[in-house]
């Protein structure tokens, strides 16, 4: 017997969540609090669950971490179909996939590049970065929970701009946005 | 004179709307229009508004016509905007126009054919003499005896002319594929556009624009050598197959006009020539729209059929970007909106340019 | 408003637009196609801006709507009324009190902040459309960043008129990559786009495109080293508040063509007049 956890109670929650995601993408690197989903499925953080409820529906595909519960929850609440990570519009993961294996878009349609929703244990961890680019007045210096391989992969994608992947780092109910336009350097 | 910053836009709009309501009603000692009258007696207007409004509902279309004071593009806009608010429940099964029991069915390519030439309630052979009698008398020519008031006998199903021609393979096959067609309302058009999306655009396209484009092809701007294989008007059943049921059920009937155009044959020494096709389909009884649509459809297939595509009717981006009269009139009429900020910047630019030139000259 | 969803649009449409907006922010200046809906206002009258606003706005927002810089122009009144009816959202005429500003053809004189979003109504999102009417062709130009034609056109203006002849909708390069139409704002307003602290969203309903300039993004008006961009303005002073550095409306005050100038930004002018009292 499968008991699904609830989604949003009203559409206004989706609007509030969307504004938080928009703020995170508009001001990359700056943590944003999400009005999260009270009881997300086990596979997802409250932030990741809220983002899916806000943005996923029958018109998009999602790749989820393995486990039936997340897929049932997603299908029930959003109608979104699942797809392999290489093809999906939204890729939800705990273990970071290699960025080049995700959909990057085309020069005609760079917006087809995927959105990676990466659940991490803690946003205030990892190496220190200098962030510059759209959304940042001068520079932002902060830790980001990203592995050693990340920066070379990010740079490789930046060389193919405007193709790329846009990332939402989620921990609990907090979110950090890393749009593909962001320039990152290790400090 | 002291200038006061203008306020009062709100009051102006309210006053304009009140005046509009009065004009719409007209003289109050004259009976108000009834939607039943419009549905019943202005059926061609209702059909056009349903087609361009992209919503099949005779009563709503009639209501929109009354609200728009007879401005049919405005009425189609009302219907289209209403359509946006309706939830999308399910896509129907494809309608089977072959199963139609046509009240009207004519073919220009054969003198006679199974099912016969059935004129139906057509204006084709009327003499366009404005009728001043009250009530109006039925259109009649000198030697005609008055026909029965309506053809009460149920029309028989008639096989399509184009299907009947199929045996000799003189006509290219119907291209209905198995794939799910694209949906023009769910994704914006990209070019080159597939035939499914082109036909959807044409079905809701402005009758006048399509008429002019079709006419242009007949006059040599991308001539396609057309013959009306068949024009049929009648009711077809609409079915849906809800996933919970697992089978299809009929939910109602709609009246459609379908035109199968038989066009210039393609082929070469290697591939035996066949006639090619154009297709038109629209809501209600609209000969002109269906025929025009079939000519433009055929023209837009120029590239696919290896023909040089130089005429406007052969340019899919040109035709499909401009055939939606609601988009067109919106942008056209937006010119009435204030543009004084941009005009001011043009004034400054032109003044400076003139000062430079006239300053140099002196 | 009974029978309609909050801010009129259904949730599926809002999600579609929200997804497009997020990608637009990630790819500054790039036009993203979206399945624009018919709205109760005509195409060409701000439906793109309205759909973007309707998709982002919430009950806690305060909305300002301006047209030609003023809150009281007829279409601004109509649109503000639309949102008041369908979203019940608070509205204001004061720029500094607004969290969302929908605008046609002007940027407010007061600098905007990080807490604000400005939504532009765009008639023709394609900056190259006068040079190349086919969108299929211009799509390729953007994919390849081939913008030579526009530079040539501007340079031809210079050789013919001695100056760039584009008075409004002067094209800009965004984040060094995409050529963008800033919408038909006067050239005077172009400098405000560069490194603006607020998020800038652009909606074209009839043409079915959404694009964005994130906060603090480089936006450069096309020009040449020997002919730098010049944000023009009438040589005048506002007759109502005395401002000498705002964009001015020219108003005819007699049958003989006598004229006076007033600030196009009606709220800014009113605030100045209040301060002078």
Q: How are the SSEs ordered, and which strands pair?
A:
The complex is a heterotrimer of chains A (187), B (362) and C (277).
Chain A: H1 11-26, E1 32-33, H2 46-55, E2 61-63, H3 68-78, E3 81-82, E4 90-93, E5 115-119, E6 128-132, E7 140-143, H4 150-158, E8 166-171, E9 174-178, E10 183-186
Parallel strand pairs in A: 2-3, 2-4, 4-5, 5-8
Antiparallel strand pairs in A: 1-9, 6-7, 6-10, 8-9
Helix pairs in contact in A: 1-2
Chain B: H1 9-25, H2 35-41, H3 43-53, H4 58-67, H5 72-85, E1 101-106, H6 161-164, H7 195-203, H8 207-218, E2 227-240, E3 249-266, E4 274-283, H9 287-300, H10 316-322, H11 325-333, H12 340-361
Antiparallel strand pairs in B: 1-2, 2-3, 3-4
Chain C: H1 11-26, E1 32-33, H2 47-56, E2 62-67, H3 74-87, E3 90-91, E4 100-104, E5 117-121, H4 135-143, H5 148-161, E6 172-174, E7 178-180, H6 190-193, E8 199-204, E9 209-213, E10 219-221, E11 248-252, E12 259-263, H7 266-276
Parallel strand pairs in C: 2-3, 2-4, 4-5, 5-8
Antiparallel strand pairs in C: 1-9, 6-7, 6-10, 8-9, 11-12
Helix pairs in contact in C: 1-2
Task: Please characterize this protein's 3D structure.
The complex is a heterotrimer of chains A (187), B (362) and C (277). Chain A has helices spanning 11-26, 46-55, 68-78, 150-158, and strands at residues 32-33, 61-63, 81-82, 90-93, 115-119, 128-132, 140-143, 166-171, 174-178, 183-186. By secondary structure, chain A is α/β, with parallel strands linked by helices. Chain A starts with 10 loop residues before the first helix and ends with a strand. The model of chain A has no long low-confidence stretch (mean pLDDT 94). Chain B is of the alpha+beta class and 362 residues long. Chain B has helices spanning 9-25, 35-41, 43-53, 58-67, 72-85, 161-164, 195-203, 207-218, 287-300, 316-322, 325-333, 340-361, and strands at 101-106, 227-240, 249-266, 274-283. Chain B has a four-stranded antiparallel beta sheet with strand order 1-2-3-4. In chain B, β3 (249-266) and β4 form a beta hairpin. The mean pLDDT of chain B is 89. With 277 residues, chain C is an alpha/beta fold. Helices cover 28% and strands 18% of the residues of chain C. Chain C contains seven helices and twelve strands. Chain C has helices spanning 11-26, 47-56, 74-87, 135-143, 148-161, 190-193, 266-276; strands at residues 32-33, 62-67, 90-91, 100-104, 117-121, 172-174, 178-180, 199-204, 209-213, 219-221, 248-252, 259-263. In chain C, the strands form three sheets. Chain C has a seven-stranded mixed beta sheet with strand order 1-9-8-5-4-2-3. In chain C, strands 7-6-10 form a three-stranded antiparallel beta sheet. In chain C, α1 (11-26) packs across α2. The model of chain C has no long low-confidence stretch (mean pLDDT 94). Classes of the chains: A alpha/beta (187), B alpha+beta (362), C alpha/beta (277). Chains in contact: A-C, B-C. Chains B and C meet through α1, α5, α11 and α12 of B and α3, β11 and α7 of C.
């Amino acid at each position: 017997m499968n008991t699904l956890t609830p989604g949003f109670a009203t559409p206004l929650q989706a609007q509030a969540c969307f504004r938080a995601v928009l703020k995170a993408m508009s001001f990359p690197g700056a943590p944003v609090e999400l009005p999260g989903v009270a009881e997300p499925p086990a596979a997802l953080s409250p932030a990741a669950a809220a983002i899916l409820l806000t943005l996923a529906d029958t018109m998009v595909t999602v790749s989820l971490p393995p486990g039936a519960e997340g897929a049932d929850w997603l299908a029930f609440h959003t109608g979104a179909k699942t797809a392999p990570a290489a093809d999906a519009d939204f890729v939800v993961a705990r273990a970071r996939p290699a960025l080049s294996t995700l959909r990057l878009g085309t020069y005609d349609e760079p917006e087809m590049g995927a959105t990676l929703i990466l659940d991490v244990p803690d946003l205030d961890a990892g190496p220190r970065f200098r962030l510059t680019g759209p959304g940042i007045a001068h520079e932002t210096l902060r830790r980001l929970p990203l592995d050693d391989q990340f920066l070379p992969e990010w740079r490789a994608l930046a060389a193919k701009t405007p193709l790329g992947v846009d990332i939402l780092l989620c921990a609990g109910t907090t979110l950090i946005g890393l749009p593909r336009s962001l320039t990152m350097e290790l400090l | 004179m002291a200038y006061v910053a203008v306020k009062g836009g709100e009051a102006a709009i309210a006053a304009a709307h009140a005046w509009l309501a009065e004009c719409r009603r007209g003289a109050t000692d004259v009976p108000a229009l009834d939607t039943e009258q419009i549905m019943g007696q202005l059926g061609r207007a209702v059909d056009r508004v349903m087609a361009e409004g992209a919503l099949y509902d005779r009563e709503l279309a009639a209501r929109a016509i009354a609200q728009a004071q007879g401005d049919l593009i405005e009425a189609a806009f009302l219907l289209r905007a209403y359509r946006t608010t309706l939830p999308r429940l399910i896509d129907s099964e494809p309608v089977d126009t072959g199963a139609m029991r046509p009240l009207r069915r004519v073919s220009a390519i054969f003198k006679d054919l199974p099912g016969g030439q059935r004129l139906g309630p057509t204006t084709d052979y009327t003499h366009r003499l404005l009728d001043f009698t009250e009530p109006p008398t039925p259109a009649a020519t000198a030697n005609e005896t008055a026909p029965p008031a309506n053809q009460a006998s149920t029309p028989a199903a008639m096989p399509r002319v184009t299907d009947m021609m199929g045996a000799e393979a003189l006509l290219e096959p119907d291209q209905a594929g198995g794939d799910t067609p694209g949906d023009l309302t769910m994704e914006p058009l990209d070019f080159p556009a597939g035939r499914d999306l082109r036909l959807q655009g044409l079905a809701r396209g402005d009758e006048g624009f399509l008429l002019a484009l079709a006419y242009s092809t007949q006059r040599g701007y991308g001539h396609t050598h057309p013959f009306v294989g068949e024009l049929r008007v009648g009711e077809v059943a609409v079915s849906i197959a809800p996933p919970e049921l697992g089978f299809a059920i009929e939910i109602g009937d709609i009246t459609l006009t379908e035109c199968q155009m038989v066009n210039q044959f393609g082929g070469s020494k290697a591939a035996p020539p066949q006639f090619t096709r154009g297709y038109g389909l629209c809501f209600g009884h609209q000969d002109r729209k269906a025929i025009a649509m079939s000519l433009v459809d055929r023209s837009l297939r120029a590239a696919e059929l290896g023909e040089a595509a130089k005429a406007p009717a052969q340019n899919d981006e040109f035709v499909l970007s401009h055939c939606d009269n609601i988009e067109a009139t919106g942008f056209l009429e937006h010119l009435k909106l204030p543009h004084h900020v941009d005009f001011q910047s043009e004034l400054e630019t032109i003044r400076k340019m003139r000062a430079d030139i006239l300053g140099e000259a002196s | 408003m009974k029978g309609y969803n909050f801010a009129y649009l259904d949730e599926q449409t809002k999600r579609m637009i929200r997804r497009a907006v997020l990608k637009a922010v990630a790819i500054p200046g790039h036009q993203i196609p979206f399945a624009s809906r018919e709205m109760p206002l005509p195409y060409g009258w701000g439906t793109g801006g309205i759909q973007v606003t309707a998709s982002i706005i919430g009950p806690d927002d305060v909305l300002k709507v301006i047209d030609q810089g003023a809150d009281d122009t007829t279409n601004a009144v109509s649109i503000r009324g639309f949102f008041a009816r369908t979203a019940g959202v608070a509205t204001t005429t004061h720029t500094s009190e607004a969290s969302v500003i929908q605008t046609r053809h002007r940027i407010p004189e007061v600098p905007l902040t990080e807490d604000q979003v400005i939504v532009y109504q765009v008639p023709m999102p394609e900056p190259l459309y006068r040079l190349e009417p086919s969108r299929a062709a211009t799509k390729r130009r953007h994919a390849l960043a081939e913008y030579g034609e526009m530079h040539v056109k501007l340079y031809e203006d210079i050789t013919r008129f001695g100056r760039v002849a584009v008075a409004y909708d002067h094209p800009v390069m965004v984040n060094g990559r995409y050529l963008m139409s800033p919408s038909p704002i006067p050239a005077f307003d172009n400098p405000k786009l560069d490194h603006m602290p607020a998020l800038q969203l652009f909606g074209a309903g009839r043409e079915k495109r959404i694009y964005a300039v994130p906060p603090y993004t480089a936006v450069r008006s096309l020009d040449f080293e020997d002919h730098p961009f010049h944000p023009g303005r009438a040589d005048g002073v506002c007759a109502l508040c005395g401002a000498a550095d705002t964009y001015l409306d020219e108003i005819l005050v007699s049958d003989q063509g006598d004229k006076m100038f007033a600030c196009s930004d009606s709220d800014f002018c009113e605030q100045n007049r209040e301060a002078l009292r």
